[in-house]
Amino acid sequence: MAHIGTDISAAKAFLEAGDVVGMPTETVYGLAGNALNPDAVLRIFSVKNRPAFDPLIVHTDSLEKVFRYVTHLPEPARKLAESVWPGPLTLLLPKRDLVPDLTTSGLDTVAVRIPNHPLTLALLRSLDFPLAAPSANPFGYISPTTAQHVADQLGDQIPYVLDGGPCGIGLESTIIGFENEQPTVYRLGGMALEQLTALIGPLTVRDHSTSNPKAPGMLSSHYAPRKPVYLLDPHEQPTGMDEQTGALVFSEPFLGIPIQNQLVLSPSGNVIEAAKNLFAYLRQLDQMTLTRIYAKRLPNEGLGRAVNDRLKRASVTTP
Ligand code: TXA
Ligand code: MG
User: Among 29, 31, 57, 178, which is most buried by a count of CB atoms within 10 Å?
Assistant: First the structure.
């Protein structure tokens, strides 16, 4: 069983030996391994049960180091990197040969991010290689936002989880790629669209699922609990409720669903607080004796947009 602790040198020793460990970030917990070591990267794919066509994000701690792994930054990428990192933003950039094809699933771009968490930044500073880290959940399941979530799901396969407390943002990073220097959002996430637009102007959002998604986080079924989740618009009412019906709501519980079966993301109606609670609450509902879960869409603004995106992927289409 994984040991949970705050010992950076223990995490470092496992990583240097080619092993993988749980690691905190401000968005969600990652399953980290040496991004330049194909064996460590294979171990990540196998622990997560993740298909090899789904590339990993490479984490480092300075822009200077980023240039070891990418050939160049388009102008908008440089602007974003300088103003947002360390922060909840991943950039897709042309990779150098040093980055193994396994890490990028054969793509000629590499996803790079400088996470904003003091323990992980200290860990990254102490290493002479970057860390590949997908979210530390079994493929397709809800992302972890505490060290305990990681231990509960992957604890029998990894030696250590570095405990940095509950994640401050609670949603995965926003992913931006560049085609002809034009920025495109491939995954909505912890950095709100409005903030990005304020920095670099209008962006194309291409977060729809396709049969051949550029980012498999774009797959239509992802982040899903094991019970059916039905997503309702703000004006819609659930039907056919009983004692085993549960709900995940923004600020107001549904009438007609037992109150003890309902989790309120933000009683004050704050989308940032809602984002932070989203995955932990979905997990909690999944563990209760419920047969179905109703969820209500948030206002489509700020992080509400990314929360709605995750709810949509966690849900089935019709009740
Ligand atoms: O907040 C986050 O981004 C967290 C923390 C741990 O940093 N990580 C995370 O990783 O969410 P993961 O693997 O769960 O999601 C990364 C997404 C995947 O959907 C993957 O397909 C996409 O990034 N991705 C990675 N490299 C890519 C590339 N070169 N081109 C397109 N998509 C890429
Ligand atoms: Mg993930």
Answer: 29
